[in-house]
Structures are given as structure tokens and as C-alpha cells.
Design a protein that fits this description.
Helices cover about 30% and strands about 20% of the residues. The chain is built from eight helices and ten strands. α1 packs across α2. With about 240 residues, it is α/β, with parallel strands linked by helices. The protein has one domain: Rossmann fold. The structure holds fructose -6-phosphate (F6R). The site of fructose -6-phosphate has 14 residues, from loops.
């Protein structure tokens, strides 16, 4: 695991942009993408740049169960607003939150990932160490799954909704096994609220109590953090 520490979110996001640009220049065609606050600066930088994704496909990590793609709090809507409307891709894939047949949706999304092997997967991390919506206790062998969101995740994400009661309690998420099949993984973490999870991911034991620790089992992981998120690392 390569850990790079930057003074500011801006500088860290610029470095993340450079990783994307280099991957694209080296022939990467499929990009795994994340939502949430963490990648917003990176997506702003992409939008303002000349990066060209018109020959690329994107595959997002997750989507809230029960929300249609045009719901303002859906991750489909978030991606359109922050990136896709301004930077067109050849294809954009997200789980379909409105598909109530979970076995069918899991199969559909696993097939999309199998047909489009991910070259570079972007990740954020939850304060509880989740990646995607793979919450503590998750099975590292899972591929796409319908997950119950942890209470702390609902609490953390209620800022995007009117109240915690409006946050869906379930989501479709790419599983740890699918994430680990990506050729390169780029994880971003900013702010002191992520410091403990970052320490566990980098220095702690590999345990499903801290799903991001599974990344220690992958040989091509770049972790880009700001000083606050790095503050508990021992070196
Ligand atoms: C989002 C995702 C989540 C977030 C994580 C951090 O697609 O998969 O794992 O990356 O919850 O969220 P933020 O960036 O809002 O702190």
C-alpha cells in the first residue's frame, strides 16, 4: 500500500487527478467511481480539465435501494450533477436502486463488472472503515450485494437528506471481492473523522470488522490522504 500525504484536499485531489490521467494515457478504459463528499474536488478538477472519457466506461460502487435514478439524493443523480453531465463517458453503470428483485439486480451488476473489468477503482472510506457500502462484518468473498446500512452510516449520510428517517436503510453495493479484482485501487480520505479508519486500514490487522483492511490483500493500492486523515499513522 502506497500512502501519500498532502497538506490540503485540493493538492491531494490534484494528485488523484494525475493518477486518473496517467491511467487513461496508459490505456485504462474502465473506471470504478465513488460518490460522497470525498471525490467532489477531484470531480471538479476533472470537469475543468481536458481529460477525455468518451472512450471510457464508468462503474459506480453503490446506489441506495429504493431511490430512482432521478431522485436528487440518488447516487445516479449525484454522478450526473458532479461529473457525467459535463464529462461524457462511452457508458455509465450504476446499480438500479428501483430494482426490487435483488437477485436479479445482483446478477445484472456482477455481469456488467465481469464484462468491463475495472482498471482503476476510486474509493472513499467510511468513518467505520466501510468501502463501497460494505459495512463492518461484511464477507470479503461477496460480490454485488444488497446491504443493510450501519446506523453510523445512516447518521453520517443524513446531511444529504431532510432527516435520518429519509435515508434509505439498504443499498446495493459492489462487494469486497469485486473491488479487489480491480487492477489498481485509489482510495481518498480527508479530515480527522477518517483518521482512525485510515490507521486501521493501513496498520491494523486484516479483519472484516474494518472492511478497508482487505485492501492490504491487494498489491496495487494508492492511498491519498490529507494531514488530518493521516494524523494517527505511526510513520
Ligand atoms: C460512496 C461510497 C462510500 C463513501 C464513504 C465516505 O460511493 O461508496 O464508501 O466513499 O461513505 O463518504 P464521504 O466521502 O461522504 O465521507
Amino acid at each position: 500500500m502506497q500512502v501519500l500525504v498532502f497538506d490540503t484536499v485540493k493538492e491531494a485531489s490534484q494528485k488523484a487527478y494525475d493518477v486518473f490521467k496517467e491511467a487513461l494515457n496508459n490505456g485504462s478504459k474502465v473506471f470504478g467511481l465513488a460518490t460522497g463528499s470525498t471525490p467532489e474536488t477531484l470531480y471538479d478538477i476533472m470537469v475543468q480539465s481536458d481529460i477525455d472519457f468518451t472512450q471510457s466506461a464508468s462503474i459506480n460502487l453503490d446506489e441506495y435501494y429504493g431511490l430512482a435514478g432521478d431522485h436528487p439524493q440518488s447516487y445516479n443523480y449525484f454522478m450526473n450533477e458532479h461529473l457525467f453531465n459535463k464529462k461524457p463517458f462511452r457508458a455509465n453503470y450504476l446499480p438500479d436502486g428501483k430494482n426490487t428483485d435483488s437477485a436479479n439486480e445482483v446478477e445484472r451488476y456482477n455481469q456488467i463488472i465481469a464484462d468491463n473489468p475495472i482498471d482503476l477503482q476510486l474509493l472513499g472510506i467510511g468513518g467505520n472503515g466501510h468501502i463501497g457500502f460494505n459495512e463492518p462484518g461484511t464477507d470479503f468473498n461477496e460480490r454485488t450485494q444488497l446491504v443493510d446500512l450501519a446506523p453510523e452510516t445512516i447518521e453520517a449520510n443524513k446531511r444529504f437528506f431532510e432527516s435520518a428517517n429519509d435515508v434509505p436503510s439498504k443499498a446495493y453495493s459492489m462487494g469486497i471481492a469485486s473491488i479487489l479484482e480491480s487492477k489498481t485501487i485509489l482510495l481518498l480520505a480527508f479530515g480527522e473523522g477518517k483518521a482512525e479508519a485510515v490507521k486501521g486500514m493501513v496498520e491494523g490487522p486484516v479483519t472484516n470488522d474494518l472492511p478497508a483492511s482487505a485492501l492490504q490483500n491487494h498489491d496495487n493500492v494508492i492511498v491519498i490522504v490529507d494531514k488530518a486523515a493521516a494524523s494517527l499513522l505511526s510513520k
